[in-house]
Amino acid sequence: MRPNYSKEEKFLIQKDRILSKVIKDNGHIKFSNKKADPFDALVEIIISQFISTQAAKSIKTKILNKFNAKNFKIEDFKNLNVEQIKSLGLSLNKAKSIKAVISWIEALPSLEAFLNLDQGLREKELLKIFGIGPWSVDMFEMFCIRNKDIFSYGDAALRQAMAQLKMVNNSASKVEYEEYATKWSPYKTHACLHLWQMIES
After folding, report:
1. For the chain, what is the largest distance between any 2 Cα atoms, rounded to a whole number of angstroms?
2. Is the distance from CB of 93 to CB of 85 less than 8 angstroms?
3. Is domain 38-143 given the CATH code 1.10.340.30 in the classification?
């Protein structure tokens, strides 16, 4: 039976011969259009920084079980100090970053207005938060805003996948990676999902 590819996947299959094989090997990957809760998304992103997907999932599950919750909520962290957050299995900087996110959200005039900003302005705002850098901003665009057209050069697994597939050579520059990714526009995020799936499997 033929997989039921999304219109984004069909576009990528047409546009990129190399990625086409990856998509066909993976089958359809669902990508929700629904915006995620910004606090929940940012805590997940902070947990995932500099560690494997598997390690991040394990820490996330452990923390959610401790709070008896399905998602990360401000009220679960608000009354904890940095050391208490760290004791949940996080580094000191990640604990500080979560506290910084709470302060940042509480200082926003309107969360909805922030989410509706142009991408560039949204990114500038997020970069003001302690511990949030370009990779984290890319992940927020993908998994909170559900922006379909994001490629994250800062993601080591994406670079590994592209080099492995010989989309670029091993010594390629940031410009060369990003130039290759332009062929996936306006669905770069969907291409990234398939490259991650390839690496993880």
Report:
1. 54
2. no
3. yes
* Global confidence as pTM: 0.95
DSSP strands (E only) in the chain:
none
φ, ψ of residue 28 to 5 degrees: the values are -65, 135
Q: Structural domain boundaries of the chain?
A: 7-31+150-200, 38-143
Separation CA 138–CA 123 (nearest Å): 9
The region that residue 42 occupies, defined by phi over 0 for left and psi between -120 and 50 for alpha, beta otherwise, is: alpha
Residues 6 or more apart whose Cβ sits within 8 Å of residue 117: 125
- 21 has a pLDDT exceeding 80: yes
- CB–CB of 12/184 below 8 Å? yes
- Angle value at C-alpha 3, between 188 and 24, nearest 5 degrees: 55
Work out the angle between the directed axes of helices 156-164 and 174-181 (0-180°, nearest 10): 70
The yes-or-no verdict on residue 27 having pLDDT over 90 is: yes
The fold for domain 7-31+150-200 equals: Endonuclease Iii, domain 2 (1.10.1670)
Q: Are 187 and 146 in contact (CB under 8 A)?
A: no
| Dihedrals phi, psi of 89, to nearest 5 degrees | 115, 20
